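As agreed, record passed on underneath.
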Amino acid sequence: MINQDIINHSTATAKQAVLDCAAQSVELYTVSNVFDISLIDKLSLYLQQENIPWLADSPMHRQVLAWHSDTVIEELHEICCNLTDTVSTRFFDQPLNFLGIQLWRDCYPYKIKWHSDVPVINVALQVYLFSAPTDCGTSFKINNSEIAVPYQHNTGYIAVTRSQPGILHKSTTTTPPGVTRHSVYSIWSLTEKRK
C-alpha cells in the first residue's frame, strides 16, 4: 500500500541530499542521507518477501526490479520522480526528463568493467542500501585518476554527463561470496522521455 507520508518525508530528505551533494569533479558528486529512515525500513521489510518479481541478469549476477505497483518500489519511483526539478536546477540550466528507477541486487561474483552510461543518460543517481563491505562501491576515472565512492548505507553518487562520452566507471571490486549489494539507480535525460 502506498504511504503518502513516506513519499513526502523521503522526497524532502532526498531533495536536501541532492542540494548538499559534495563535488568530486564537474561530473561526479557524492550524496549522503538520501532517503528517510521510514522508507528504508519499509524497503527492508519488502526485500524479505519471497515473491518479489526480480528480473535476473545471470551473466552479470545482478537482479533488477524496475516496477512493482502498490509497493515501496512505486513509492521509490515517486520520490525520485519528485527530485526532477531539483536535479535539473542543480546540474543543468534546462529541464531534465525523469526516466525511472531500478532496484539492483548484486551477488557474488558481480563485477562490471570500465564503461560509460548510454548517451541518453545525463544524470544518474545511485544510492547504496543496507550493509556491504565499503570496497563494494563504484570507482570513477577522472582526469586519469581513479576516485572510489565507498559502499556505505544510504549514500552514493550522482554522475553528470554534459558531453559524450560520459564518465568512465566500474565496480570497485567483485561482490564477495555471501554479500548482497543493494542499490537504487535513478536516471534523468535532456533528450529522452519516459515511454
